[in-house]
Amino acid sequence: METTAWTQLQSVMHAHQDRRPFARATLRRIAAFARPHRRRIVQFVLLGMVTALLAVATPVLAGRVVDAIVTGGSARSAENTATVVRLALLIAVIAVAEAALGLLNRRLSATLGEGLILDLRTAVFDHVQRMPVAFFTRTRTGALVSRLNNDVIGAQRAFSNTLSGVVTNLVTLLLTLAVMLTLSWQITLLALVLLPVFVVPARRMGTRMARLQREAAHLNAAMGTRMTERFSAPGATLIKLFGRPDDESAEFAARARRVRDIGVRTAMAQSTFITALTLVSALALALVYGLGGFYALRGSLEPGAVVALALLLTRLYAPLTALAGARVEVMSALVSFERVFEVLDLKPLIAQRPDARQVPEGPVAVEFDDVRFGYPSADKVSLASLEEVASLDGRGGAEVLHGVSFRAEPGQTVALVGSSGAGKSTIAQLLPRLYDADAGAVRIGGVDVRDLSADSLRATLGMVTQDGHLFHESVRANLLLARPGATDDELWDVLGRARLDDLVRSLPDGLDTVVGERGYRLSGGERQRMTIARLLLARQRVVILDEATAHLDNTSEAAVQAALAEALADRTALVIAHRLSTVRTADQILVIENGLVVEQGTHEDLLTRGGRYAELYRTQFADDDPLTESTPAPV
Questions:
Q1: pTM of the prediction?
Q2: Can you name the CATH fold of 2-344?
């Protein structure tokens, strides 16, 4: 009975959640996810029913054993002995069967539950990968990861726990009540009178415990977020430079103490609850033995029936209390399903067409034809629950590119220059379909990028972004993202061309050295050169360099520019740069201001015109070292 009390308390604690009604559409979607597992679900339910039958059979057989012992005499001792032995063997067989079925039930439960987790996680992961970049710029990573972990597991409980629990408990309850009423309806009814004493405290205590658990979970999540931010390399550096360690420690300790206090209160509440319910169960057993013994002594009830009633009583409260909380458990599981479906229902803005084409073979041109674009509003790309805000920001959609047109011929290098925020990086993001243009067309090889397959576009176009992002993996793994089948010789070749081979050879594990979160174990210039090495390995026909040399010192920049010149040979390139010295040799230079191409031409032409480019050039070199102007570098 103590185990029963604990199970019921835990059930109510973890299931006490939103109880709002759910649409039939949600149930139909759940059924669609469950359909591939329907055979196991049927086996699971049937096995639960058989287990319930065996659970009721054992107390009845135990009662018959007692009757055989009590009624045994010298004349029938041999017959009764044989009966007792047969019943004992049957009880042993049932025990073995229960154990075997329990293991089989657990295997089915694990297979079903883990299979559902696999399906849900894969569906959410694949769906999230198709979301536009705007989705990730707004979403809190922790909230999104929680959908893949906590909510998926919560949904899984609907099948592995709640489904089997409802069926098994219902069958057990009906069979137990039927047998008990057959043995003695008076004792059964009196035993049921004590049921509210068992169920009501469980419900009330469960609510209180759930409140404490939620508070503890919130505090733990806050501490986890704080530790994640403070323990990352950039966060730790910031704290050391500007933080107040004593204040940080005091705030963390205050939350940790609150979690400790909640833990103590929870432990005491659990202990008090279980002790009280154990007492109630003991009183119920005393009632059965006392009243049953009275009836047995009067000859109106068999002694074995008293024992059977007592054993059945211990199996009555468990299904009753579990079924009392079944609705809450179902609602809890449905809440988790809805939170998972909420992510799956967010439509990706970038979708591949069924008849997607391949990029034409050979060198390709890049063309922007009267392209207009505005970043999507939050309600199109995000969820309030993932941003952890009350409601989404309705602003957005304002046009930032106003009819941009230009063409880069095959093998040409086109440079984009202009003030910060003018729209240069936005133009670059439209080419690989990180976003789609609202009007006009972006073409590669004469084909609108919206008509190209994602695989073909990735194989054709490579991009080096400003931040030089690397994963917390080895040098080898970070490079192989570009071409998984590359050999070590090819890796060393691109590392040499990016002027990184000496550095990597000096690392403890060479190519297998882990570079740290976001590549933080490397310097800014080394990280950027690593991404350039990755670009060199990919060998794409169209290349975008978005401030690719922004973090390099003069020596490294000269070396990498030489490698880039080799990498860009015979390739169509789009280069974004603030340092105008790096784009002098570009075939075309576009000056972007306020989402418009305000000037276009070569370096010499634009200087001769004396327009915006000439103004930017004079301003930049008026502040730079005079030697910089006389040291041109190839693109």
A1: 0.68
A2: ABC transporter transmembrane region fold (1.20.1560)
